[in-house]
Amino acid sequence: MLRMSAALLARDTIPWFGNHTGYEQLPGYLARHLKCSIVSRRPGMAPRYIGSVIDTLLRRPRAGSVTTSDIELLFKRGTLRPAVTHILYGDQRLRLLNPWRKAPRDIVATLHLPQSTWNNDARARLNRLSSAIVLYQRDIDFFQGAVGRGRVRFNRHGVDTDFFSPGARNFNKPRRILYNGIYLRNLPMLGRVIMRLMQTRRDIVFDFLVPKHARSEVALRPFIGHPAVTWHAELTDEALRDLYRQAYLLLLPMDESGANTAVVEALSSGLPIVTTDVGGIRDYGGGSVFPVLANNDDDGMVAAVIRYLDDSSLRDDVGRRGRQFAEDQLAWPLIAEQHIEAYRQLLQT
């Protein structure tokens, strides 16, 4: 436990996430142990315009405009003097560190995105950070190179295991295969694999959970209006949970990955995952709980799907192991305690 039991949290919300999805669930669980003050980003462009004016008045127009919520966070840090200030989505908010050449160690940012997504400007901002939490292990050396040796802690992304839970395993045909998301996905591979499955199997249909604005992607166009594909977006929490429960497996070819909400929610739902061996997938059961494929190994991915379709006992066994992994490693109460321990370590070293 922290010597001072108070934390200031900068929380963003992802517009298409519901009340049980995303890293922004963490503050509710931290509040069981710490006195938490939360500053949430306000929607719209007005907060950015105001921040831009302030940056100009401070003669820092090239620093990257802050927002009114950034200013509120820094003000509360100065007045409340919390033990730790935690920026939950640090990748997009490192402009908060503009006042410092190297930020104080009590400012902790969680870094979600893999090394390959960081351009030179973002890497320069990353150099200002002194304490970080990352949600997967592969790129820790990269982040330590900017933040500092011993200044980066690995914690997994959590999941609401009470809400995302398995449903009945009575799968009627056609069996439903779920695809979820758009960012860092390998859409060309997805398209190729699904076309091959459609040509060889008549006992499957597909659910695509894809934001409406992304459906014009070239690899997705052949499936618009296809009778074997149902498109979903803007779901309620319960409708999202039902998609996981009704699916026979999750098909998720990835080009890159840090932590992935579709993966943790599928694990918690007891849904087997067919995905590629990239980024942080192995930190979330890839290769141990469920098999993984090399990126762009179309033959391997098609074969993996067919193996599950033809062996329901294999499917159920992998699903049970995924659920157990979620309960043991990903449940938010556990993840919150691990974050508090990370704060303690970062403040004391």
What does this structure look like?
Helix 2 packs across helix 3 and helix 6 (187-200) packs across helix 9 (298-310). Strands 2-1-3-4-5-6 form a six-stranded parallel sheet, sandwiched between helices. It has a six-stranded parallel sheet with strand order 9-8-7-10-11-12, sandwiched between helices. The chain has helices at residues 26-30, 46-57, 68-80, 120-126, 140-147, 187-200, 237-246, 261-268, 298-310, 312-330, 332-348; strands spanning 6-11, 35-40, 84-87, 107-111, 131-134, 152-154, 175-180, 204-209, 229-232, 249-252, 273-276, 292-293. It folds into two domains: 6-158 and 331-348, Glycogen Phosphorylase B (Rossmann fold); 175-329, 3-Layer(aba) Sandwich (Rossmann fold). It contains eleven helices and twelve strands. The chain is elongated. Mean pLDDT is 92; it is low at 45-51 and 56-64. The longest helix has 19 residues, at 312-330. By secondary structure, it is α/β, with parallel strands linked by helices.
